């Protein structure tokens, strides 16, 4: 932005003041993964294991039915962003278990 001069007219008209810098609102951070949330999710996954629909999707991925597995997860989960994240993690887990 241009230097501000105390002028009555023009783009930068008006009295020279320092702008208040406001903190970003909480809604801007919504959905961002925190350390605590990640820890809790990992703990629950370790204790409870996978949901039945996740196990079925992993079986579909094991037999190379990727598209069918994605459609199945999409029907169960609904939300697109969660679908992609879940599909990626399940795919990595199945690949890891196949390679072991």
Automatic annotation (TrEMBL):
One of its GO terms (molecular function) is structural constituent of ribosome. GO terms for biological process: translation. It comes from the Eukaryota. Keywords: Ribonucleoprotein, Ribosomal protein. GO terms for cellular component: ribonucleoprotein complex; ribosome. InterPro entries: Ribosomal_eL36 (IPR000509), Ribosomal_eL36_sf (IPR038097). Component of the large ribosomal subunit. Component of the large ribosomal subunit. The ribosome is a large ribonucleoprotein complex responsible for the synthesis of proteins in the cell. Belongs to the eukaryotic ribosomal protein eL36 family. PANTHER family: 60S RIBOSOMAL PROTEIN L36 (PTHR10114). This is 60S ribosomal protein L36.
């Amino acid at each position: 932005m241009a230097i501000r001069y105390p002028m009555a007219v023009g783009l930068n008209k008006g009295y020279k003041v320092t702008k208040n810098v406001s903190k970003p609102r909480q809604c801007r951070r919504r959905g961002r993964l925190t350390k605590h949330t990640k820890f809790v999710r990992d703990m629950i996954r370790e204790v409870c294991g996978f949901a039945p629909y996740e196990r079925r999707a992993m079986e579909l991925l094991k037999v190379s039915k990727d598209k069918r597995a994605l459609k199945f997860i999409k029907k169960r989960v609904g939300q697109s962003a969660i679908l992609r994240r879940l599909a990626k993690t399940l795919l990595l887990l199945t690949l890891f278990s196949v390679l072991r």
